[in-house]
Amino acid sequence: MSRSGLVDRFSLPNGLEVILAPTPRSPTVSVWVWYRVGSKNEWPGVTGASHWVEHMLFLGSPRYRKGEIDRAVIGVGGRLNAFTGNVFTAYFSTVPREHLAIPLRIEADRMTRALLAPAEVTRERTVIRSEREGAENWPEFRVSETVDELAFRRHPYRWSPLGYPEDILALTQKDLAAYYHRFYGTSNAVLVVAGGFDRGAVTRTIRRRFGPLPRTGEDPTVSTKEPPATGERRARLSGPGSTPSLTIGWRQPGIADRRIPAIAMLDVILGGETALFRIGRPWGSSGEHPSARLYRALVDSGLAVSATSSFSPRIHPGTFTIDIQAAKGITLERLEEAVLRETERIARAGVTRREMDDARVKVRRGAELAYEGAGATGFRLGYFAMLGPKGFERALLRAILRVRASDVQVAARELFESASRVVVGYDPTGDGSAG
Amino acid sequence: MSDPLVIERSERPSGLVVARQAAPAFAPSIAATFVAPAGYAYDPSGSEGLALLASSLASSGAGRRNRIELARELDRLGGTLRTSCHPESAEVTVWGPRASSEALVAILADVVLAPRAGTADLDRVRRQLYERQLRETSQPESRAERELFRAVFPPGHPYRLSGVGSRRSIGRIRRSDIARFHHDHFSSEGSFLVVTSARPLQAIARSADRLFAGLKGRRGPKLPQLPTARTRTGALPPIAMPGRAQVEIRMGGPSIARGSEVYPAAYLANEILGGRPLLARLFQKVREAHGLAYHASSELEPMRWGGHWLVQAGTGPERTAKVLKLLESEIDRIRDTPPSTAELEAIRTSAIGEIPLGLETTSGAHEFAVDVTYHGLPGDFYRAWPGILRSVRPSDVRRAAEIAFDATRAATIVVGPTV
After folding, report:
1. Domains of chain B, residue spans
2. Nearest by CB to B78, which of A99, A279, A299?
3. End-to-end CA distance of chain B
4. Predicted-complex ipTM score
């Protein structure tokens, strides 16, 4: 069930899109600002800029000196954070409802007037490096980064939102300030307020706080198109770790493509769930799916300890991946054969009616409780606003539920072609410890 | 009763304690948890990993449903089933839409009373635990914690281990061992059923009597003996893990139980030190003031029989010495000097103010109910909690920190690329 029937949407004259989702009895309110800027807007030399700017927006503006944003929100018992992806950057604060004015004031202030002070940029560089180094400790991060590097030769999806280490060392305060002033602003943002509040009063506050802001912020179309893949690309990594793993990716169309609903169903049937409509947690994996095809073929058979698929909801063509962790003594070659056997089987023989029925139940049930809580509501409304126009979530859900078994087979046949395949294996060299 | 902060309880004729919390009125879901004295403290010697294995197998089929039928039924109901295993207890939780409430609690009862994992399930979960064992030693974060707790708790102590056992001990466990463990530990004595729902307590209790009737007459396990041998303290030998990008630092040691009289002040001491995200001293000093690391925080984990504390940070090898010094000085400061009234007040206001955020969802509210029930706290504990926190003085915080972050039993370890 999408929330579109209970949601108010309007735009301010300066271009800011506003989405209000009141739940009158909720004791909390969640304020989200989503900017249509992410690593898709970067280019070699400034990779990681979107993420770094995200950090800088907590470190000073005319009204809030460094640390004051954290103190203002957490001081009243609230939570706040931000994250940067390929296609968006999002900031959120969830506070007891009587403190709604605080996050609205903060977001209006830092939307166009963050200071990005040179001393803070310098200090934050080490923090950003540390964040990246922490990720590099995980084999999964190295594999995922390699998959993107192989899958994309030109498109900015090639690099992680964390950026390349050499760019983190080289980016200057001037670069970051220019990036911020170019992409941040009212005409490139969506403000979402969800939870316990009075619609009229909040509308007036938003007009007063955000209305006077200048119309700034570009959302330039990313014109770089990835050329058609002309053959399989492979890499074999090795390094510290415990478990051999294999990731196979295929080029997947952008979120607005007519084939996406069938690909989402394919994801449910192969891996057990799909990111946009899953039962349980609004983000992250929700656990094991013993009835899913990959699980049965790989985990039940003793070849693997985990097996999942991931459809990536991105604006531009992305990758559909299958991730497997090998069971002890199983070679990556054997795993690859088993995975390809499954993808070929689904492309050749299609799916059963029962699988389709089960997948529809999962998607429908996943959508039903997706809006529980102010935080999840703010996340969901903003997230879908980044991916498509008004009504996009509802339309996508309907389209997924209308998918026929034959559509899934056609989608599998088109998706799992070897020319766009990327295969990355990881061989652990042991725990690497000398102690 | 419709206040989610008040938990009602009823001890049933079988001995099972049933607790009920009102689900937040605007939340469309329910949650129910069965908590049993089935944590890895009860692993028999030589069968380490048994409790976790039994817990992990709980979703492998129950009653008349095999694993796939169980998963399909949960999907049909729109619900989830989760299991977790801690040192002292194991939990099974169902969550899902209100309309599926009865059916989900019935599944929970099946899982508790009639698990039916087969040999293939045991083999599969065993393989998964082997992988967890390997990962625990190969990731700097988990390796650092593992080595720290192995140093500060004596052999045989349940807080010393993560419950995953060894390849040998897991390999030795048979289905009959699991069945016996399950029968002995999932009993009415010492177990709780906690339900967060709009249904009244009497209705929930009547359902529980019917659904969990099979627990009747089962006796709970004996409490394990906790060893008190001497442990290692101070700086532990560093562990080099070449090829990694970041060093992980962990400091910590044994701490207070939840029932300790200094718990409220110790809770605030930990929030001031590193527990309250973004506001706490460790984050402010290590990241915001000096820009030395992405993360620096602390945890206080009080359980029934005792607890532990942990300070953690990850940083580059060239910055490790500086970070270590900052962490040590902040731990000393919280033990030695009372916080200012203003600092204490800021943290306290934040801690009290966040209570409504826990009530935003059924699963958030449910955590309060499980906590109150497990620790035997008064049903209106979270109503009283703000007043308890307000009564804590700066001098109480210092004194509690001295006890909870006991320097004489603490150790430090550094794990990473070049240490």
Report:
1. 7-215, 234-416
2. A279
3. 57
4. 0.93
Euclidean distance between CA atoms A260 and B209, whole angstroms: 48
DSSP state of B236: P
Q: Per CATH, which fold does A4-210 belong to?
A: Cytochrome Bc1 Complex; Chain A, domain 1 (3.30.830)
Residue given tokens 């061992």 in the structure block: B177
Q: Are strands A89-96 and A79-84 parallel, antiparallel or unpaired?
A: antiparallel
* Domain B234-416 listed as CATH 3.30.830.10: yes
Chain B hits for A128, CB-CB cut-off 8 Å, are 294
| Interface touch B349/A369, C-beta < 8 Å | no
Angstrom distance (rounded) from CA B131 to CA A242? 7
pLDDT, one tens digit per residue, over B105-142 is: 999 999 999 998 889 999 999 999 999 999 999 999 99
Element counts in chain B: helices (H) and strands (E):
16, 14
The residue of B246, B286, B297, B320 whose CB has the most chain A CBs within 10 angstroms, and thus the best one to mutate to test that interface, is B246
Residue B197 token pair: 């729902």
Task: Please report the residues numbered 385 through 424 in chain A whose beta carbons come closer than 8 angstroms to any beta carbon of chain B.
Answer: none
Q: Copy the structure tokens of residue A91.
A: 């900031």
Positive or negative, the Cα torsion across A364, A366, A371, A376? negative
What does the pLDDT look like over B304-318, one tens digit per residue? 999 999 999 999 999
How close A428 comes to chain B (CA, Å)? 10
**Chain A to chain B Cβ contacts (< 8 Å):** 220
The ranges of chain A annotated as CATH 3.30.830.10 are 4-210, 233-428
- Residue count of chain A: 435
Are the C-beta atoms of B362 and B30 separated by less than 8 Å? yes
Residue A147 to chain B, least CA–CA distance (Å): 20
d(CA A168, CA A170): 6
Strands A233-239 and B65-66, bridge-based pairing: unpaired
Architecture of the CATH domain B7-215: 2-Layer Sandwich (3.30)
- What is the value of pTM for the model shown? 0.95
Q: What is the DSSP string of A387-422?
A: HSSTTHHHHHHHHHHH--HHHHHHHHHHHT-GGG-E
Going by DSSP bridges, is the β-strand pair A233-239/B80-85 parallel, antiparallel, or unpaired? unpaired
The CA radius of gyration of chain A, in Å to the nearest whole number, is: 22
pLDDT tens profile A186-225: 999 999 999 999 999 999 999 999 999 999 998 888 889 9
State whether the Cα torsion B280-B281-B285-B289 is positive or negative: positive
Residue A322: phi and psi, rounded to 5, are: -120, 125
CATH classification of A233-428 is 3.30.830.10, yes or no? yes
